[in-house]
Amino acid sequence: MKRPSILLTFIFFIGLILTGHAQELTQTVRGKVVDKETGFPLIGARVWIDGTTIGKNTDDKGEFRLESVPVGRQTVLTSYIGYAQTQQDVEVTSGKEVVLEVGMPVSAVEVEGATIVAGKAGDAQNDVALVSARGFTVAETNLYAGSRGEPARMASNFAGVQGGDDSRNDLVIRGNTPNGVLWRLEGINIPNPNHFVIPGTGGGSVTILNNKFLANSDFYTGAFPSEFGNGIAGVFDLRMRNGNNQQHEFTGQLGFLGTEFTAEGPIGKNSGASYLAMYRYSTLALFSFLNVDVGTDAIPRYQDGAFRFNFPTKNGGNIALWGMGGISDIDIILSGTNCFVDDPDLFASSQDRDQYFGSNTFVSGLTLNQPFSASSSLRATVAYSHQRVDANHDQIYQSQNEAPNCTSGIGLSLDSLPPILDYTFAEDKISANVKYTRRFSPKHTLYTGFTTDYYFMNYTDSARTVLPQSSGPNVLLPWRTRWNAQDENAVLFQPYVQYKWKPNDKFQLVAGLTSLYWSLNDSSFSPIEPRLAMSYNLGKGQKLSLGSGLHSQIQSPYLNYYSNRPNTDGSLDLYNLDLGLTKSFHVVMGYDRLLGKATRFKTEVYYQYLYNIPSFTDSLDAYSLINAGSGFSRFFPGQLADIGTGRNYGWEVTLERFFRSRTNGGYYFLFTGSLFDSKFRGSDGILNNTTFNGRYAVNVLFSREWIMKKGVTLNVGGKFTTVGGRWRGEVDDFRSARDLEVIFRLDSTFNTIQFPAYLRLDGKVSIRWNRKRVTHELAIDLVNVTGRENALSLIYVPNNPVDPVQQNNQLGFLPLFYYKIDFFASGKN
Q: Could you tell me which of 529, 530, 537, 548 has the C-alpha nearest to residue 589?
């Protein structure tokens, strides 16, 4: 019996939903209003739903509760004397209460009413982020077609950011290495928050971060404030949300990428405390049912979860115990292949070995947010994190023979399967972050604090080569130890201070200083890193901005402990222990303009100068560590020195229209375009293309929403992406054959060959229907609807009798679906 297509099934469900009974549905919108800088509750602030008579003043805790708000998109307005009026666009459904924390910025001019200057969609949550910063909501991670609900894939649509890799969510920001991105959660520097993590890279195949537990957060693409250290490319500053502290709510989701369940609710009666917990499990066994070819028979297995327990304190503060983590593994077994297959499109694999890979990541912390008054507050977090990666490879030796039953005509029989690789990399950290805010007047605010990480590092790795023989058994060479760092430790410390001067509501300036110290060696100390940003409102919705700063970052610590030169006593010659900090100087200038109430235009030009980049010293060649940080392979360094340089410059444009209509649906669009150039110099002194110098990136997104009947909403969207291809050099045939992987020549041909441009068209259809106390949502995300096979990389296929160097293509057409249900068990609705 032929299975119905997923699209026909989706249409069937739409028809079933539209035959449902229509009813007038409402929901509660509640939360609290606080000072944006200090978090102190604002008593008597006016909160109302735009275009309605629904509104109230906040109580003595700064809290408000608006009942009987119609479902749909609503705009929540807030005003308070001495503060700038704010607005938040929210989506109201019948299955979950809308719980908001409205941060109001103080006005620099004392007036008898509010100054309407704040709260534009897309503004950063951080009040000192004046340039190259973008606030994003959890809803946006679901809005964009092809984003799969992930923050990183969503951010690849922003100006200056390029993805261009279907199998990974690495972020290339303004031509920089993905490893230059700093990930923070609750103020803590966290490990790479992805499943299937490869050491030294900035992304992964599937994120551990789930939009079910994230709050609205910020994303920075350059010249970020002084509170952020140990990053040269960009920053993801993420927050976890609190659970609902008044009623128990639940979310269940069944989708192509996994099954998950979320629960939240109050702890005790009238205590104000809450809990939030979620769990997700995924298996790609669903692929066999849907007959979707993703280029591999290997099945990635992963599961992840998160929790948060929140307890209120005086003056609107809170103490939160939180955590998140995930485990993943994949077995790529090729030794059972009976026929030779000339197919390089295997998931992160070479065809000459069986691979067993696993990773796990966990972060847990305790956060205190404590306002002392309307003008001062303290935020402090202590946390523990762990990340471990394990891999084992077995070499496949097979004999070829004639096999008429094989498509290729070549049969394979297994000769031997000796182990050739065994490694375990583990990093544990004890971290702390402290931030103190003191506002002396509406015009002067001081922020000071520090971040510190105490590393515990264990890296072990052994490999060996197997020499095949024409007669007799294969020769197994001795194991070579490449990493043997056990119980190593070091401290990363970053203090900072920043000052905001806002003489009026048109001009503001933020000046800061920070420093970075890495105790692993005497070369890793950056005593002073100045940061400066300013903005000026020209009136009529126009703003100019300027920012600059010096940034530094440590390299992945595992690089310091590698060696391919053993000493006479058998120990390793650790020739990279003295690597220092990589540095980057940023300058950004921007112009921002509102076009009406719902459309925004923004453009920025930037220049970055990078130096102290590790490059090879044992020969004059064209390699630099600026080209690493993505893909499924570790980097094996020779002797490195901080002698490389680089520079990036470019121009970015964003045109965005936000949803505004409450009754007749509406539409949303986003256009981002980037023109840039990214170059570097290695030890040969020649200016070369970086691997990520695609030179242009364009994203066009569109979403149209129809309110079919009361409580039912249909959303149809699409996205087109094109990115210039990445760069590679000529293949070193001898070294590639010796090491059984593609290795490029480090000469004048390095990064002179560009892969074809990346192009992808995505579509998304979702329908949401509200019923009493329940909201259902069904969506299908059509990734790469044209099935274009974009080039990804070159891989080495030793069994290929024609050419062992083959092009590895990306995913073809990939339909992703999910069904989600939100419901609550108690409450007034």
A: 548
Placement of tokens 């609902």 in the chain: 244
Owner of token pair 């109201």: 92
The two counts, helices (H) then strands (E), for the chain are 5, 47
| Helix H or strand E segment including 18 | helix 6-18
Contacts of 738 (CB under 8 A, 6+ apart): none
DSSP state of 227: T
The predicted pLDDT at position 113 comes to 45
pLDDT digits (tens, 9 = 90+) for 292-319: 554 456 678 899 999 999 999 999 999 9
The rounded distance, in Å, linking the Cα atoms of 10 and 692 is 39
Which tokens hold the place of 223? 């010249």
**How many other C-beta atoms are found inside a 10 Å radius of the C-beta of residue 329?**
16
Owner of token pair 């639940």:
250
Going by the DSSP 8-state scheme, the letter that residue 557 receives in this structure is G
Cβ distance 615 to 685 under 8 Å? no
Q: For residues 819 and 258, give the distance between their C-alpha atoms in angstroms, rounded to a whole number.
A: 11
CA distance linking residue 414 with residue 474, whole number of Å: 13
Length of the chain (residues):
829
5 confidence band (pLDDT: 50, 70, 90) = low
Q: What is the pTM of this model?
A: 0.90
Contacts of 355 (CB under 8 A, 6+ apart): 330, 331, 332, 349, 391, 392, 393
End-to-end CA distance of the chain: 45
Provide the residue type at 709 as one letter: K
The string of pLDDT tens digits covering residues 471-513 is: 666 778 888 899 999 999 999 999 999 999 999 989 999 999 9
Q: Which two tokens stand for residue 782?
A: 């059509």
**In contact, 56 and 66? CB cutoff 8 Å:** yes
Confidence label for 116 from pLDDT (cuts 50, 70 and 90): very low
**Is 560 in a helix, a strand, or coil?**
helix
Q: 274-294 pLDDT, tens per residue?
A: 999 999 988 665 554 455 554
Q: What is residue 639's DSSP assignment?
A: S
Which tens digits make up the pLDDT trace of 389-398?
Answer: 999 998 887 7
Question: How far is residue 460's CA from residue 483's CA, in Å, rounded to a whole number?
Answer: 5
